Task: structure prediction
Amino acid sequence: MIDLDMGAYAAFVWPAWGISAVVLTALAVRAVVAARRWNAELKQLDKDAPKS
Result:
């Protein structure tokens, strides 16, 4: 079984894990949003480009 008891350090370890998880999630969401925005902009540029 996994021992998750951090003893006296739990007050520092668990918040650090939580903050890290929130930051990593926010970065992943930001990357996905940016990728969708760039994809939409690329499609618009392709649509507006003159056909040759």
Summary: The longest helix spans residues 10-48. The CA atoms of residues 27 and 33 lie 10 Å apart. DSSP finds one helix and no strands in the chain. The helical segments are 10-48.
